Amino acid sequence: TNNPVTVDGGKLYRFFDRFRADNPAVVDEVELTCEDLLELNDLYILYSPTEFQLPAVDNGNGYEIKNLSLKNFHKWLSASRTHNHEIQLKTIHITIQNQQK
User: Fold this and answer.
1) Contact indicator for 39, 96 with CB cutoff of 8 Å
2) 3-state secondary structure of 1
3) Pairing, β 56-58 against β 38-47
4) pTM
5) Is 43 or 101 the better-scoring residue by pLDDT?
6) DSSP assignment string, 5-53
7) What φ, ψ does residue 37 adopt, rounded to 5°?
8) How far is CA 60 from its chain centroid?
């Protein structure tokens, strides 16, 4: 959803780890695969003490985050950071290996 999530300073947050989460019911597990032997990706984690709008569309049942091309994501990110100087960004580089090849 496009709703803000409150976080507490000084607290460790784990992403995508249902077994170590305080509330496993709200964890979205993600399994990453690739068609090639190896794929390089980036995870972008954004934080701001003030609200910012995610790229979302109204699907009739509320808002849902829409998929963006990398170019359009960077345009959205740049515009968001221009309007909200408090946005902090952490980029995590990940490597996905195809276990089938």
Assistant:
1) yes
2) coil
3) unpaired
4) 0.71
5) 43
6) ----TT----SS-GGG-SSGGG--------SSSEEEEEEEEEE-SS---
7) -65, -35
8) 23
CA–CA distance, 10 with 90 (Å, rounded to integer): 16
Token pair of 92 as six digits: 């995590």
Tokens 């980036």 belong to residue: 42
Is the four-CA dihedral 70, 56, 47, 27 of positive or negative sign? Answer: negative
CA 81, CA 98: separation in Å to the nearest integer? 35
And the tokens for 36? 């090639």
Residue 76 tokens, joined: 């959205």
Tally helices (H) and strands (E) across the chain: 1, 4
Per-residue pLDDT of 41-95, as tens digits, reads: 998 988 899 888 887 766 777 666 777 788 888 998 999 999 999 999 999 999 9
**Amino acid at site 68:** L
